[in-house]
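Let us work through a complete example step by step.
Step 1: write down the sequence.
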Amino acid sequence: MFDLEEELKKLPAKPGVYLMHDRQDEIIYVGKAVSLKNRVRQYFQTSRKVTPKIARMISQIDHFEYIITDSEVEALVLENNLIKEYMPKYNTMLKDDKTYPFIKATIYEDFPRLMYARQQKRDKCKYFGPFTSVGAANDTLELAHKIYKIRTCRRVLPRDTGKERPCLNYHIGQCAAPCQGNISKEEYAENFKKAVRLIEGDYSQVIDYLKEKMMKASSELAFEEAAGYRDLIESVKKMSVNQKVTDFDGQDRDIIALARTNEDAVVQVFFIRDGKLIGRDHFHLKGIMEDSNSQIVQDFVKQFYSGTPFIPSQIMLEYEIEEQELIESWLRERRGGKVRIVVPKKGQKERLVELAHKNAALVLTQDIEKIKREEERTTGAVKEICSWLGIDTVSRIESYDISNINGFQSVGSMVVFEGGKPRKSDYRKFKIKTVTGPDDYASMYEVLSRRFVHGIEEKESLKENGMSDEFGSFTNFPDLIMMDGGAGQVHVAEKVISELGLDIPVCGMVKDDKHRTRGLFFREQELPINVNSEGFHLMTRIQDEVHRFAIEYHRSLRSKEQVKSILDDIPGIGERRRKALMRKFQSIDAIKNASVEELMDTDSMNLKAAESVYEFFH
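Step 2: predict the structure and record it as tokens.
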């Protein structure tokens, strides 16, 4: 039993991280403190004024735990890690988990290379970036290789010079083949320096170099070669347009601004490298509720820079943040150099922050409309279906289908929609075990029985072991079952639900003569629906998905020859006799009910084979 007063007395006056748990033992908030004793006790002081968000959080706290650290910086790092791991609902959370590519230069090699890299590591290489898109990094690399013929192979040079033939890049004119000794170390080094300047954004020198090459080729009547240089010039010009000069001191900096509503927030980041705006990106945040703008920006800075491999020397913010000195200290440790956080008040830098804010506001406006449309086709569609059925709320919908071919085992599929969206991790497949032949009702009865019996048994087993239902694969029961069909399929499902003592509403998606959905069968009557509504479109998506999943499963099993005729299990019945029996009797049930004489009156069958088939079924 957690004794709150006793546990509060035990809190140490040391830096650390605290974790608040609710009654289900879920972590609902993670925070850090210079003094755990002072900070955690504040939550339970009735005289202290708190925001409505914090008040709601406090009302749900059942118990807490804490971790002591040696410093406040260590507590900040641990707090970030725990927030990412547990994603507590009362912490401001980054919805996006983005990484940015780099270009790596292997400067320690005699003939260095340029390559794409996902992470900036502490090695002997030099890194350029981060680039805001994979495409930008790849385009830059491709140009550097084409223009300056930098090698891409992993050969150790000059040790491996001449040991193997040159690669394809040499033959298509994109490598100078230092592996063959075709270029000296000094000349290669000069080309590599120029390639690095291209990556750093020095486009004017590259364009001058290419123009000189183009004019020379043209004067020598090598017009195809000249056209190649012309195309390269256009590529470089196109790239240079995307990098606008915004500052002239050559400093690396990030510019961060915020736009928000009561429930949603977007942070826009401008990335400036060597005085050039190389790109921008935006990030959505959730759980902001009544947080101040300053608090949201501070939480973003901590989470963003705990994950990004590159930290600039300056970070420009729209709002002052309370923990500026602490965060600067932490970022200096991560960067291994000076980092300043500033809030510009005037001039060009203030205008850049304002520009970032306008971009964030634009993204937020667009995304609110997008989110609204998405809600209409998902949760809005579910509410519409609920209104047709006259039931209150539905979160989880399950739908089932059977797929078979005459004479082959049937298979069943289960698809799950939560909040109007498919939850593919909960999809399940079933091989029919107790039904022979194409009996969809019996097959469906088996699938539903197995699904819910398994779920009930899992719940009981987990309860006996003191574990919650979340650890089971079948323990999460639906709020609504939507059968693909009318009264027959609905009655099968209702029979299973009744026999197992469950209370789950079941409806059927009824089709017309042209196999188009026309209504819902529920509680022994067919309900008309609006075929132009979002509810109808969701029903169609559910039907299409359950069909697709069942058919794909059946097809994959057939392709692996895992779905076979039951006749293959009968001694003396091979492929030729199986096909002959199916041609004559058309179904397994007909074969099962046939006499020995009728079985013998089949191509390629003899008395022994006919008796073998008869005895197998009887």
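Step 3: interpret the result. The mean pLDDT is 84.
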